[in-house]
Every structure is written in C-alpha cells, then in structure tokens.
Amino acid sequence: EAEDVDDLPIPGWLKPLARGYIEKMMDKKGSVEDDETKYEN
Fold first, then answer.
1. Does the residue 37 lie in any domain?
2. Which of 10, 29, 31, 40 could form a disulfide with 14 if both were Cys (CB 3.0 to 4.6 A apart)?
C-alpha cells in the first residue's frame, strides 16, 4: 500500500512529513478529488 510511508522511496527525515500529509489526505478523501479538478481547469 502506498499509504505505508516506510515503503516509500523517500529520505528518513521526510517520512514524518509524508505520514502527516497522508493522514490529512485520508481525513478528507472526498474533497481532495474536487480540489484537484478545480486546479486543473
């Protein structure tokens, strides 16, 4: 699963940041997709 930060090919110091970012994305799953399409247009 991509959600497992330890499996991502990123530096160790970046993992806490990535984990927090992923948790934020998990919190607002539905609205994230809307935001992305907004920026595309």
1. no
2. 10
Q: Say how many residues make up the chain.
A: 41
- The answer to whether position 19 is within a domain reads yes
Q: 34 in a domain, yes or no?
A: no
Measure Cα distances from 26 to 4, 6, 19, 20 in Å.
12, 17, 10, 10
* C-alpha span between 24 and 34 (Å, rounded): 15
Q: What is the pLDDT of residues 17-30, one digit of tens each?
A: 988 988 888 887 65
Q: Where are the alpha helices (DSSP H) in the chain?
A: 15-27, 29-40
4 domain-assigned: yes
